[in-house]
Amino acid sequence: MAQKTVYLAPGQSTEVAFEVTPTTAKSYSVSVDGLYGSFVVTTAPVADIRVEDLEINPSEVMVGEKVTISVFVKNYGAASGSRTITCTVT
């Protein structure tokens, strides 16, 4: 609970602001001296980058020939982001 004390002369008005920093995503109820409201806190959007569909072409080569290895990469998330893609051949 936060409280602030104000002193006002007759006919004077002022704005009183309260700041909060929520730490949990949920719906919050607010009550200020008989007035009621609410606000919703959501989680920040994140990137969800997935590597799919491995393709190796051709699947058989002679020594010294080139092989192309490729994957399809898609961001299923709600924000931009990056991911390091590693190809290991043993």
Structure description:
The protein has 90 residues and is mainly beta. The protein is built from no helices and four strands. The chain has strands spanning 27-32, 35-40, 49-57, 68-75. The strands form two sheets. The chain has a two-stranded antiparallel sheet with strand order 1-2. A two-stranded antiparallel sheet has the order 3-4. The radius of gyration is 29 Å and the shape is rod-shaped.
What structural class do helix, strand and pairing data support?
mainly beta
Rounded mean pLDDT is 95
Number of helices: 0
Coarse shape: rod-shaped
Strand order of the largest sheet: 1-2
Set down the secondary structure blueprint:
Layout: E1 27-32, E2 35-40, E3 49-57, E4 68-75
Antiparallel strand pairs: 1-2, 3-4
Which short descriptors sum up this protein?
mainly beta; 4 strands; two-stranded antiparallel sheet; 90 residues
Summarize the structure.
With 90 residues, the chain is mostly beta strands. The chain contains no helices and four strands.
